[in-house]
Each structure stands twice: as structure tokens, then as C-alpha cells.
Amino acid sequence: VSVTVSGAGTTVPTGNVDITGAHTNCSILLAGGSGSCSVVFNTTGHKTLTATYGGDGKYAGSSGTAGHTVIQASSTTTITDITPEPSKPGQAVEVEFTVTGGGATPTGTVSVTGADVNCSIKLSGASGSCNVIFNTIGVKPVTASYSGDANYLPSTSPSVDHTVKNATTTTITVDNPDPSVPGE
Fold this sequence. Notes:
Blueprint: E1 2-4, E2 16-20, E3 26-29, E4 34-36, E5 45-53, E6 62-70, E7 76-83, E8 92-100, E9 109-113, E10 119-122, E11 127-133, E12 138-146, E13 155-156, E14 160-164
Antiparallel strand pairs: 1-4, 2-3, 2-5, 5-6, 7-8, 8-11, 9-10, 9-12, 12-13, 12-14
């Protein structure tokens, strides 16, 4: 937020200007009658900022307002891990993911797809995990889709390939002769 305080006299106004109307407000120490500082909005919508000048020895206090609109920001959804890798048909497979944005912590739900039994979970601290199940073997592309919230637009992760393999067991069925002799 940039402000300018002007007066009718020949001297330049000095002092502080307080900016309010945001979730995190700021204060400006005037230099040459102007200055700037940064505020933070945590929610979307139309906002009204108020700049309040406290005055100095030569100028009385004053205030001014300006409108500002906060829109939904983009989000990024990323699958961070799939375990176990590879898995077997019918086995529970944990898919971990994160959702990031430029401001407040994203909330909402993430749905994981690409399996025969998919899952969905509410975010906790912008991350989470849930279990899916694959019933057939092969390489399976898995994606995580974020629903969005009041502050963030929806997003979908790039697909991550997961391998499902049949389980195998190797068993020695016979060893003849038993016992044996050296060199036999």
C-alpha cells in the first residue's frame, strides 16, 4: 500500500500513517510526505483499506480509503509418496500428497484416483494421505485432485505411475538324496 500525505503549507507532512482493513495491517513512517508498507489478506472478497494520518506539529490528522479485491489464488497439488512400491493386487496402498498456495494454509478435500478402490480425505495442515487398492497387475497412473476452498482454486497433481505385481513364492519341494555324502 502506497500513500501520500499533502498539505497546503510549504513544509512536507511528517509522522506516521496507519493502514487498516487487512488481516495483517501495517504502519508507515513518512519520508518526503509519502511511503509504503505491505498488508496481508487471508480471505477473498472486496476489502476497504483505510489510511489514517496522525498529524504532526504543522498538519492535522486525516484519513482516506481505497477498495481492494482479493481473488482465489492458484494451488499446486503434488503426490509425495506411494507405498509400498510395487504393491500386490488387493493390497492397501498409501498415497501421500501436499497442497500448496501463496498464502493461508489450503483446506478442503483431496481425492486420489487411478485405482480400483479410490479414496478421499480432508486436508490437515495442507497435506494428507489415504489408501487405495488395485485389483489387477500393471503400471497404474495415480493422480490427486484438490477440491479448492474459499481462498484457493482446485488443482490436480501430475500423474505418478505405480506398479502392481503378482506375488510369487519360491518353494523347494524336494532335495534328494537326503542325507547325501561329500561330492555327491
